[in-house]
Structures are given as structure tokens and as C-alpha cells.
């Protein structure tokens, strides 16, 4: 299960960090684009079912994993896929008050613009993430024309850090770029989403990030 937001190079790593990276990559891919037939096949394969079962064995993730698996099982017609794609578009692409923009800068940049509007895209957080990517010799894929502070890009970058950086670097990045705004994003998704899939995905992402940050902190103590 790979992400569609950032190009990364695979390397050999220990099993724990490989699993952590895979989870971040999966979450990234689901925020990066709508689910199509190929993605659905990957998410419902035997390997994926084992993965969901293992992830859902943790009590903190169980309820939302069960919702995601149940929702995926209903995507057995083109109409169902189109309806979920419409949910994705309405939530993450259109940028209205009824959407939940997945850009860190819109939650972290509290400085008003000259005319008092919401913070603009491609702002300070985008520039910062672009620098992180450059330092790691990564780049946002050309077919993903979104600001670099998109949640999918940030999650994909953490997946990269799981393999290429030590625990201190990982925790520092997560605290500075995810845990400080993710709950507000999840609240917005919950507020505006009429379906179940993306609410569950957002909650699972928050639960996973919090749990992973706690694990990293314990490893450093």
C-alpha cells in the first residue's frame, strides 16, 4: 500500500518501523485521492484484510477500523464508488465552509490576511514542508498538485521518517506538524461529513498519530 503524495525510496528497516511506515503510507494514500477500483481491490484483498484485522485488534482503533472495513464492503457498484468520490471532493477539494480543508497552514496560521480572510494556501506551512522534503531529497509527485502542507503529504513524510530518522526526529516532527492541528481537522470532518467513511478515517488517523507519538516518547525515556 503506497502513498500517492510523495515519492520515496524503499530501504531495509526493522519490522516495527516498517509497520509504522506502512500505516502512515496507507492513511496518506486515502487522503491523497478518491478511492478507485484499483485502490478498492488493494484495500479489500486478503493481505489487506489481515492488515485491518491486526490494526483493529488495538482497542483504540477497533471501532473506526470496523467502520472502514464495513464501508469498503459496500463499495461493490460504480454508483457506490462515485458517491464516496463525491464525499471526498466535497470534503477536501472544493474549499467551502461545508468542507474540511486538509492543509496544516489553515489551522496553524492564525495571522489574518490584509482583508481579514482565512489564511491563504501555499503559505508558511507549505514553504516549511517543501524545505523538509528538499532536505530529504523528496518531492511531491507531479500528479498531486496540492500545497505541501496537505495532510497526505505530511503523513507520507512521517512514513519516510519512520525508516530514515531516529525516534527523536520523528517525535519532534509529529508534534510540530501533526498533533498541533489534527484534532481541529477531525472536528471539522465530523461536523461537515454526511457519510461514515471519512469521519472514521479522520478519527483513526488522529488516534494512530497520538498513539504513535506516545510510543515514540516512551522509547526516548
From TrEMBL:
UniProt cross-references to Pfam families, sorted A to Z: Nitrate_red_del (PF02613)
Matches recorded under Gene3D superfamilies: 1.20.120.1820, HscB, C-terminal domain
UniProt KW Iron keyword: no
Superkingdom assignment: Bacteria
Record field: transmembrane: none
InterPro entries named in the record: Chaperone_TorD, DMSO/NO3_reduct_chaperone, HscB_C_sf, TorD-like_sf, TorD/DmsD_chaperones
Keywords: Chaperone, Cytoplasm
Subcellular location(s) per record: Cytoplasm
Record has Cytoplasm as a keyword: yes
Matching SUPFAM superfamilies: TorD-like
Protein family according to the UniProt entry: Belongs to the TorD/DmsD family. TorD subfamily.
PANTHER family, per database record: CHAPERONE PROTEIN TORD, CHAPERONE PROTEIN YCDY
Function of the protein: Involved in the biogenesis of TorA. Acts on TorA before the insertion of the molybdenum cofactor and, as a result, probably favors a conformation of the apoenzyme that is competent for acquiring the cofactor.
Protein name: Chaperone protein TorD
Species name: Shewanella schlegeliana
Amino acid at each position: 500500500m503506497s502513498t500517492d503524495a510523495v515519492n520515496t525510496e524503499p530501504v531495509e528497516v526493522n519490522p516495527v518501523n516498517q509497520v509504522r511506515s506502512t500505516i502512515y503510507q496507507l492513511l496518506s494514500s486515502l487522503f491523497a485521492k478518491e478511492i478507485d477500483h484499483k485502490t478498492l481491490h488493494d484495500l479489500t484483498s486478503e493481505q489487506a484484510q489481515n492488515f485491518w484485522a491486526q490494526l483493529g485488534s488495538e482497542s483504540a482503533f477497533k471501532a473506526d477500523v470496523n467502520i472502514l472495513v464495513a464501508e469498503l464492503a459496500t463499495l461493490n457498484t460504480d454508483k457506490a464508488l462515485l458517491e464516496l468520490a463525491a464525499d471526498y471532493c466535497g470534503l477536501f477539494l472544493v474549499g467551502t465552509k461545508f468542507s474540511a480543508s486538509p492543509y496544516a497552514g489553515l489551522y496553524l496560521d492564525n495571522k489574518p490576511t490584509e482583508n481579514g480572510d482565512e489564511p491563504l494556501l501555499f503559505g508558511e506551512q507549505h514553504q516549511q514542508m517543501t524545505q523538509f522534503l528538499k532536505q530529504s531529497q523528496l518531492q511531491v509527485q507531479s500528479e498531486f498538485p496540492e500545497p505541501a502542507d496537505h495532510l497526505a503529504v505530511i503523513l507520507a513524510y512521517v512514513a519516510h521518517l519512520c525508516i530514515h530518522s531516529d525516534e527523536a526526529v520523528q517525535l519532534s516532527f509529529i508534534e510540530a506538524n501533526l498533533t498541533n492541528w489534527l484534532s481541529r481537522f477531525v472536528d471539522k470532518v465530523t461536523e461537515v461529513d454526511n457519510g461514515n467513511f471519512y469521519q472514521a478515517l479522520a478519527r483513526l488517523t488522529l488516534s494512530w498519530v497520538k498513539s504513535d507519538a506516545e510510543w515514540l516518547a516512551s522509547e526516548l525515556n
